[in-house]
Specification:
10 helices, about 240 residues, mainly alpha
Amino acid sequence: MERPDVLSGNSVDWRAVITNIASDAVNMATFNSGPRQPLLSWSVAAVCVTLSAVPTAAAGAASSDPNWPCQQIKVADLSFGSAWSGPPVDPTHINWKDDSQIADLVQILSPRRKSLDQAEAIIDDFARQAGDDKQPRLMKLLAGLFSVFDTERDSILAGLDRFGRRQQELAADIRADNEKLHALQSETTADAGAIQGLTQQVAWEAELFQDRRQAISFACDAPSKIEQRFFALARHIQQILEQ
């Protein structure tokens, strides 16, 4: 089942998106079977440029995690304390799932297809209806939102880490095949067909590496988008309680 997307107006399973980008098994099978067509868009010079970037491309420049594929700094956890300065509360100790109204409201408020203005208006109505129970009801809602956003964000981070590992593996394959190509080219009796085939393979791997790196860039924004939405909703709940 797809989870509600907190980033756009559509329903997106971000784990599936990242997995599909990271997986090249079908493409590799297609490449290894049947005739190989020349890759006109990729020259040997372009391959060399890509290879020069491979040692650092698999890991984000701002992260100490070698598997992290994004330029954004990797923040492992969604920080509740950074978003909330209201009444003391541990959201992990609040049982909100058994409250059907709260659970339904969390599912309505978490997807980004519900604009922040709409979400805040819904929270306002909920707070008015709660009456004297406004604070405990809003705290339950806050805990539910934190739980859903935190779980979704953890899932995306895990997918990005898997993607990063796959990119590192592909980078190693590119380097190894490129070394084989150089060795083959240095042989005076090397078969021209073998050189051409290996050249095309290195070019294909380099193009795949670049395409995957470009495709994952939008998913790298997902963790921060989740943080921004949770922070905005948490701040609005806090403002209601301070009134």
